[in-house]
Amino acid sequence: MKDVKIIRKTAPYLRRPQANVTRMMRDVTIALVPATLVALYSFGLSALLVILLSILTMVVTEYVYYQIQDLNNGEGFQLKNKSFTLYNFSAVTSGLIYGLTLPDDTAWWIIVVGGALGLFLAKLIWGGMGQNIFNPAAVARLLVVVTYGTIIASTQHVDGVAGATALGVQNADPFSLEALSSYGLTNLFTGIGIPGSIGEVSAIALIIGGVYLAMRSSFEVRIPLAFIGTVAMLALAVGLVVNVNPIEYMLFHVLSGGLLFGAIFMATDPITSPITKPGRIAAGFMMGVVTFLIRLFGAYPEGVVFSIVLMNLFVPTFDYFKWSKSSFTKRRILYFIGVVVLTIAVVLVGVYYAR
Amino acid sequence: MIKKSRNVRDYKALTKALPTLRYVDPEKVYIHLQNGRCKTYDLYVKEGDKVTLGEIIGMRHGGFFEQPIHSTVSGVIGPVSKMFHRTGRKVDCVEIRNDFTETYHPSVIDRPDSVIEKLTQAEMVQIIKDRSLVGLGGSGFPSYIKLGTKEKIDTVVVNAVECEPYLSSDYRLIMEHPGRVVEGLKYVLQALGAKKGLIAIKNKNKALSQVLTQVINVRYPELDVKVVGLGNYYPQGWEIEVFKNALGIEIPNGVLPMKYGVIGFNVSTCVGMFDAIKHNLPVTKRYFTLTGDAIKFPQNYRVKVGTSVKELIEMSDGYSGNAEEVLVIMGGPMMGTSVTSDNVIVSKTTTSVIVLKNVDYKEEPCVRCGSCVYSCPVHIEPVQIMNAVKKDDKEAMKGLEAYKCIECGLCAYVCTSKIHVTDYVRKAKKLIG
User: Fold this and answer.
1) Which residues of B touch A277 (CB under 8 A)?
2) Domain limits at A338?
């Protein structure tokens, strides 16, 4: 009989063949293809430059960081170093997401500074993939908004400040549908003829990407559903109170700005979302609330990125072992419904005083 | 992949359709004298003594788990040596050289049906105890303790789900001897005074359902025994999951199912009952699957307890040509124990040996996808327990209820990053005692 070496391991000895980090990250990139194509169609070459520069910035930042880290650890220089994590698409995905959130005429140095700092501060210093507390793309975008917002705004774009498309116009009076007269709902849905961040304008392209991810089960569909659903619910409630068509008002809030993009591609980053189903739904709900509050009462017309980064901070709280449960219980569902009702009441009180 | 997934690729096609080979006569058998629960033993025979099949040659000591040791062949006693056991440890084993005469011990005599009909629970418990029948699905828990329960039992469930990948010995057992299964179940029903019997199989195994239904309808029309098809997922064969899906009873962690009026037996234990009560025979043979992707001819065997696995691997023409490093697993590939040598003995509770090519999975950093949390059958959060173990945070391990873990291995199986999550949870269980 043939001699073989017998190895000792511990159970289980099998792994799911199709489970793979690279597959998951690559799927996100693939899901962004429709949005990218719409961006290229609407904005042309400038969009291509923004996207390529963003990806390049993030990839190079990660590469250089790990090279320096390896050199510090006493490893010799190798072109493909040990801690090389580029193969699993995570930096590429972050770069693509970041690029798609920028307006098409963003200066190149803003893209580079924002991207490099974003990846460094949000991901690398925490220990790289899997350890990061914040979503790198969201933090990079946020840095651009808070540091260079005025520069971008000075280029005379209606959407200037925070990547909000038609929301910028609406910001002057959040309870009217004036913006709708210039950008119809159909335009918002397809993204044709809407100025704004290059990847966020076309709702249909983003939804196609979301459906693809859901079919490949590469993201948690409950987060965007809870996120968008919360915004829709609150907008509907407000629409019923103020003097506008509530359905149109709701659709306007859902389709405009970076909501769909943020909800589908940024909020669902598994590394920076809670680990349980109830936790994920609760986080999505909170993101929706914060987004809507900033849109209505905040200084910025758009709050998606803020809400995502803010909720990233609360992930350890959602996951704290004393109350984190992986299954739904009747009592928790009741509590949750109570919170939802309370939130609607608070928003409506706010609207009453704001008018 | 972020999803709840309990579909484990089952690879059963390798052996499921193959008839069982009767490999009954090895040159020597090795009977283990110790096991996981019984550390000490008495041997009543010495080297050179002649023994017969079914004769008591010793006694394993261990309180409740005390059980007589039976010879599984007729022959001559050899020396005592250390051999690998199913648990992966080396234990004392006595060698018996087979004389190939199959001489039965005088105690092995058939009981007529008229006698069996009159047996009480206590008498049956005594028979089972003397025949040292244990849970043959792998638990090794003495069956007499379960059969002697004082609780009022309504339903007896025979677990023939066999949800572990690769295994097909229970499948073959039912296909080839459905009558013994039902007869065994009949005795259990009689002993416990239970009315209803259920035989739980996987939904997709339509053939088993047909065979069993046929036998029940034709030969046992008076029995209230039904065949139920349960889910095809893993771990459907976990007893609590069987009760939940077959009867709708949810049994909380740490409570005995007997309190709810149900009791479960593995299908091979059930056949063991039949052998013990009808033929007064201890477990001397068992259905056994030798399979895996590193073995040339995967097969089902019916083997003498005490056969060396090495001989069986030789029977299957050895390891396949392109295997350099292999894993030899006693039991299923999800929960079984890996041993360092193929010189292992088949004990009563060994259902299978799986020989797999060694694959070193490349672990990536956890991306917190949550698949382990979604898939966990006991609804705990394996990834959080893993992080608690890394931080040595015992309070968190307790708070996350790591003690509930049944070590089914699903968390590691579904892991997107191919991290050995189960190992961490196991460690946590050990740390919090």
Assistant:
1) 370, 373-374
2) 21-354
A147 located within any domain: yes
Number of structural domains (chain A) is: 1
Respond yes or no on whether the N-terminal peptide bond of residue B79 is cis (omega within 30° of 0). Answer: no
ipTM of the complex: 0.87
Closest to A187 (Cα-Cα) out of A6, A42, A352, A338: A42
User: Is there a contact between A6 and B328 if contact means CB atoms under 8 Å apart?
Assistant: yes
Tokens standing for residue B16: 């499921």
In a domain, A123, yes or no: yes
Q: How far is CA B353 from CA A6, B87, B92, B326, B343, in A?
A: 13, 12, 21, 12, 12
In a domain? residue A15? no
| Cross-chain CB nearest to A4 (options B323, B335, B339) | B323
The model carries a pTM of 0.88
Average pLDDT, chain A: 84
A195, A95 in Cβ contact below 8 A? no
Cβ–Cβ contact B323 with A under 8 A? yes
B210-221: pLDDT as tens digits: 999 999 999 999
Quick one: closest CA in A to B358, which residue?
A: A7
Distance from CA of A324 to the nearest CA of B (A): 8
Are A270 and B336 inside 8 Å of each other by CB?
Answer: no
Comparing alpha-carbon positions, the chain A residue that sits nearest to B323 is A4
DSSP label of A271: G
Q: Dump pLDDT digits (tens) for A229-274.
A: 999 999 999 988 887 888 888 888 888 778 899 999 999 988 899 9
3-class SS at B348?
coil
| CA B69 – CA B78 distance, rounded (Å) | 15
Determine how many CB atoms are found less than 10 A away from the CB of residue B120.
11
pLDDT tens figures, B6-16: 888 888 888 88
**Whether pLDDT at A41 is above 60:** yes
